[in-house]
Each structure stands twice: as structure tokens, then as C-alpha cells.
Target: Transcriptional regulator
Amino acid sequence: MITNHTKYGLKAVLHLAKHDTSSLDDIADRETIAADALADIFQKLERAGFIKQASPDNVMLARPANQIMVGEVVRAIDGPLAPIPCVSHTAYERCNDCFSEEACEIRRLMRLVRDTTAFILDKTSILDMGAGRNPRVIFDDAGLELSPHHAGRGTGT
Model:
């Protein structure tokens, strides 16, 4: 589950994708986010290179919305997408109670959850999410793939 901070961060980035520049107070009011929480989120978004100062009172996206993937924003605010540490690519930790990672049924399922979540979020741009264009995922024995109905990364269609 993503945290409220990540949800608010996504709302703020979507707002900026639609309105070019805005003040923190304007985004907080329009998106019903506490201004102090949004200030903390903006620091993370700015450090990660998603937003920048447009003027002393306004911020804007630092990159076009079709080049900012939802997965990048989620990781910048919440950290790894993995539901348990033993399947994380960036914050791996072996489970203390696990005798064999290769034989662990829980790890196998949680890796699929991580892979599927990452696949969807990393293939969906802020522009796509704002337009309601989400990837259609096909599961088969060969793994995950996008259906032909998804236009692909950053195309805006």
C-alpha cells in the first residue's frame, strides 16, 4: 500500500502537469492536502528532479509529464516498491526466519507482486495517468507484457 504522502505527491505532480506552475498553497487548497505535509513532499520531489522553482512563489515540473513515470515518483517518496525486503532490488535484506529463499513460496509470490507493480508503475507516465491511459497487462508463462492497446512509454497516446 502506498502512503498518503505518496498519494499526495502524485496528486501534486498531476496538478502541475495540468496547470504548468502553481504555488504550494494553491496545490494544497485545490487538492485538499495539508500545506505542511505538501512542503515535506515537495522537498523529496525537488531532490528527485521532478519539480523545480518557476518563480519565488511557484513550482513547475522539471521534466515533461510524459517523461515522469509513476514508479519514479512512488520510489522517491516511499522508497522501494517491494512488499517484503527479500524481493527488493534496491533495499534487499534476507529474512531472518528463511532457510531457503529459492524454496520460499511467500518470496515467490511477493516477487511477482513486486514485478507486476513495478511493471505497471514504470510503464505509466504522469501524462498517461492523468489522461486515464493505463497499461493493459498480459500474464502468461513467459512473464509480463503490455498488450498492443498500450501506446508505450512517453508517447502521450
